[in-house]
Design a protein that fits this description.
The protein is mostly beta strands.
């Protein structure tokens, strides 16, 4: 490939956020300048809280928190959480319990009172619910990287070795992310268990890293430290930007 189609960049700078955050959490939300948020979990112990309601408002599902002593005992949750549980109560049926969301909220409150619990986390939809009565929950932090490089809307930033959220990795020579392909010899790829609204992973390689794309100039750089790559879900049909 001719030099006209290549863009050489130096080492990606360590993102400033690690002055306050020395290690990436196992569960977190990532926000960038374009405003989108990627939910990420490197553990199976997570709870993705997102509320869905159909246009007719007759079909819905979500996650809620019950607190008996609160003025508003049932509150809809959003975001992603580190979540582990030991005990739960589950009920689902074939037909819809109700099409009225307010009625469903009251059913959930009444069920929590019957279980005689002060607090609970609840997953629910039109057909039923799961009430977690013994659990540990912590909302994932919303973070952003202050120093990044990019190829199109594929962003990448270097992090300290001790900031890796997991020790599990795959050894690959190539990794694709939408319309971008990352090449390096025997690179360690740390992939999360779950992401939504985009893709994120971490690569560590002792060799030069090259990123190619049919839509962007090639980028080549070297990093002694792990590099986080992330790309928000493309908005066009080609899944490319």
């Amino acid at each position: 490939m001719s030099s006209q189609n290549q863009t050489e960049v130096g080492e990606v700078r360590v993102c400033e956020i690690y002055e306050q955050l020395p290690k990436l959490p196992m569960v977190f939300m990532l926000k960038a300048a374009i405003g989108n948020v990627i939910k990420v979990s490197f553990t199976t112990h997570y709870l993705n809280a997102s509320f869905y309601k159909s246009r007719s408002e007759l079909t819905w599902d979500g996650v809620a928190r019950f607190k008996a002593d609160s003025e508003e005992p049932l509150k809809i949750l959003s975001g992603i959480y580190y979540f582990r549980y030991r005990r739960f109560h589950k009920y689902y049926q074939v037909s819809k319990i109700t099409r009225n969301l307010d009625e469903m909220k009251q059913i959930l409150v009444d069920q929590c009172k019957k279980l005689d619990v002060k607090e609970a986390v609840i997953e629910f939809n039109n057909y039923g619910y799961t009430i977690y009565t013994e659990y540990r929950i912590k909302k994932a932090p919303l973070i952003h990287f202050t120093s990044t490089a990019s190829q199109g809307r594929l962003f990448f930033t270097k992090i300290p070795q001790e900031a890796l959220p997991t020790s599990d990795y795959l050894v690959l020579n190539k990794k694709e992310i939408y319309n971008h392909t990352i090449h390096s010899e025997e690179m360690k790829v740390y992939e999360p268990i779950f992401t939504t609204a985009g893709i994120l992973f971490i690569i560590s390689s002792e060799k030069p890293i090259t990123i190619t794309s049919p839509d962007h100039p090639t980028v080549t750089f070297y990093s002694k430290l792990p590099v986080v790559f992330y790309h928000y879900r493309p908005q066009n049909a080609r899944r490319a930007d």
